[in-house]
Amino acid sequence: MTHSTRRRTGAALAAGLLLSVAAALPASAADAGGPAPGAPTTFADLAARVAPSVVNISATQTLPGDAGAAGNFDDMLKQFFKDHGGGSPPPSFSRKSTSLGSGFIIDEKGIVVTNNHVIAKANDIEVIFADGHKLKATLVGTDPKVDVAVLKIVPDRPLKAVHFGDSDKLRVGDWVMAVGNPFGLGGTVTAGIVSARNRNIDDGPYDDFIQTDAPINKGNSGGPLFDTDGNVIGVN
After folding, report:
1. Local structure of 179: helix, strand or coil
2. Is 58 a catalytic residue?
3. Is 180 exposed, middle or buried (0-12, 13-18, 19+ CB in 10 A)?
4. Which listed residue (74, 102, 221, 227) is catalytic?
5. What is the mean pLDDT of the chain?
6. Is 94 labeled as catalytic in the residue annotation?
7. Which of 110, 118, 142, 148 is the most buried (most CB within 10 A)?
8. CB-CB contact of 56 with 189 (8 Å)
9. What does the angle CA 70 – CA 68 – CA 58 come to, to the nearest 5 degrees?
10. How many whole angstroms separate alpha carbon 45 and alpha carbon 40?
11. Distance from first CA to last CA of the chain, Å, rounded?
12. Which residues in 20-94 belong to E strands, given as ranges?
């Protein structure tokens, strides 16, 4: 056997070994360009199906004249009129603070869930749909310890409610999709996997968080986290 023949034989053995290893692997692993087992090829259909149930929450709080900088300005005006006489001081200066978050419809009769911190101390709450339609909301109940609030709107058209899944069945590595409606600009969708379950971050007495690598963008607080069947399994 010549030297060149030995080289060709070695190359053939190596090629045969590689083929054997590839044949022993699952098809998806052998095809590096394909998706991992169970990975969705797109979230488009799921997003389109659940988007009508996700809303924007606009909560406005009126701050009195003695609050912060507004109070200082109010005091200066009063002192000016006192020192220079003439006329009455203007009414107390007040300002409004607006917080924006997301929420989702859980009942076609007009029940909406969001985060407590989105509507905390609000004097006025509006639910804004993806098409810009607005409805006034009233606060039904809230639980700051789990950061959840329940709102009520009076529907003037049919509403689509979400369906709930079982978060206890989630496994680390499962795909999830987060949907929000930040700033009233329309829906936003992000996707990722469950990174961990039962996370305790010392945020309260009932810490039991689902950790996900799906980005939760600013304004998405209070929006739903869906499984791949379109069921809500968490609140962002």
Report:
1. strand
2. no
3. buried
4. 221
5. 79
6. no
7. 118
8. no
9. 80
10. 11
11. 70
12. 54-63
Query: Looking at this protein, which amino acid is placed at residue 1?
Result: M
Phi, psi of 22 (to 5 degrees): -65, -40
Percent of the chain scoring above 90 in pLDDT: 53
Instruction: Determine which one of 117, 124, 174, 195 is catalytic.
Output: 117
Average pLDDT over residues 12-21: 33
Looking at this protein, which amino acid is placed at residue 144? P
pLDDT digits (tens, 9 = 90+) for 84-143: 665 555 555 556 778 889 999 999 999 999 999 999 989 999 999 988 899 999 999 999
In contact, 95 and 63? CB cutoff 8 Å: yes
CA distance 140 to 80: 44
- Of 127, 72, 134, nearest in space to 103 by CA: 127
Question: Is 117 one of the catalytic residues?
Answer: yes
Among 219, 234, 232, 230, smallest CA distance to 102 is for 219
The pLDDT value recorded for residue 17 is 29
Q: Which of 53, 58, 74, 147 is catalytic?
A: 147
